[in-house]
Amino acid sequence: MTPVFLEGKDIFLGPLTGEAKMEGYVSWLNNQETTLFMGSGRFPMDDEDIKKYIAAFSKSKDGMILGIFLKKPARHIGNITLHMIDWRNSNAEIGVMIGDKKARGKGYATEAIHLVADHAFNKLNLHKLYTGMIKGNEASRRAFEKADFKIEGILKEHFYLNGEYLDCYRLGILRKENIKK
Fold first, then answer.
1. Model pTM?
2. Domains along the chain?
3. Which end of the chain has fewer CB atoms within 10 angstroms, the N or the C?
């Protein structure tokens, strides 16, 4: 059983341990449909790559990676990161991936974003959180907007995908804008 770090209504967030979780994670990162709008997926990944990636987070005080787990039925459906924590300027970036196709579109990403945002603002004393996604990844944009993030700008032709350069949204939220739902 995975230890609960942050708990929501339908999900909980916890550390990534155990081979079963690694297998799911590796398969998500090697699935071109899942990683279409991500920086991942450009090179194949294996268990050792994932273990090194997770180990780097566990040794860092500038970021964390947590698995997103459904409560019922209990299963690993994705991951969320709080990374690039800038302690001097009190901000950090959030990234989220729902790798389990059956769990997409059900609000789990938004719930995970809320949990991490509350933790970042109320436990880590951060002032601002930000994220980015490629224009076209509307599911991710909607998840963050439902978590009260606002579009702050667009990076023109910032991401190369399938023969063209695409714009990227930049979204952010300040602690005072973090509204509990």
1. 0.90
2. 6-127 (3.40.630.30)
3. N
